Amino acid sequence: MDSRCKIKVREATAEDAAGIYALARELAETVGDSTPEEEAVRARLEELLDEPRARVLVAENEDGLVGGASFWIKPDLAHGDTIVEVPMLVVAEDHRRSGVGRLLMEEVRNVASDNGASQIELVATRANVTAREFYRSLGFVEADVVSLEFVGSQEDPPEE
Q: Domain extents for the chain?
């Protein structure tokens, strides 16, 4: 029987750090980001596990972790409601297109519903066509929003 048929989604634990690091490394390679440091991923996981408004999910089968997602349950002052923001969703390359991402997003939607969220925001680069197509297949629409990021030192901001 195909091991992908036995996928379980659960809340992550500190013991999942090595598997989450492997997934984060694979995601970085896929989108062309720099490779994260394992200790940094481990430390961030521990912080998120202690943060009441953050969640980290993992998808696993008998071989180990095959996917993961992190998200925030955020109060939205501008609209007086709650938003769930998903900055990371990753599925191991050999398990893509097998329903793992769909299972993870189903659980994100459940948590969003349980918390009265009116919106789920996803993060994907323009170049990550595969992720954008996947999200659209789940009923998400791309918003006409410009994302601005400050990258660099807060103490020495770039000159205009």
A: 3-137
Four-point Cα dihedral 86, 90, 95, 98, nearest 10: 20
- Decide if pLDDT at 14 tops 60: yes
Q: Which residues contact 116 (CB under 8 A, 6 or more apart)?
A: 81, 82
Please count the other Cβ atoms lying within 10 Å of the Cβ belonging to residue 92: 20
pTM for the predicted model, two decimal places? 0.85
Q: Cα–Cα distance between 11 and 15 in angstroms, integer?
A: 11
**Extended strands (E) in 7-50:** 8-11
Fold of 3-137: Aminopeptidase (3.40.630)
Q: Is the pLDDT of residue 4 over 60?
A: no
